[in-house]
Amino acid sequence: MDKTWKDNIKSESFWLRSLFMVLFFVVYRIVDILVLLVAICQWLYVLLTGDNNASLSRFAGGLAAYVAQIVNYLSYNSEQKPFPFSDWPEPESNNGSRAKKTTSAKTSKAKKTSRKTSVKKSSSKKTSAKTATENDVKKSSDAE
After folding, report:
1. pTM as predicted
2. What residue numbers bound the domain in which 120 lies?
3. Fewest 10 Å CB contacts: which of 46, 53, 78, 101?
């Protein structure tokens, strides 16, 4: 065991990885502040417009994926170095992220209007079906 420990201390790859870990920890702290700024900007945008900014959401999704890359590297879950040593991560589309599911105010309003219209249509269909049934009953009783 002592020999392995001594070999690790002398290992160039160990010290190089340690250097990268310190570097990415500093980057992580900077990105942490950037996430706070994006959250504040998004909050202000929602306050003023009533809907979130899709571009900021996509950027925040990319930051989240980047933070995940850094954490995986720092915790030895991945040997792949994060950006700039690899490509900038794309936000995941299958995890339910708001960047992909969030729409503009117009689209949200259109969906709400569409729902209201479909409810009205289904109500009118029920009413017309009821009226048709009543008419059938009247016709059959008139025929008798």
Report:
1. 0.60
2. 103-144
3. 101
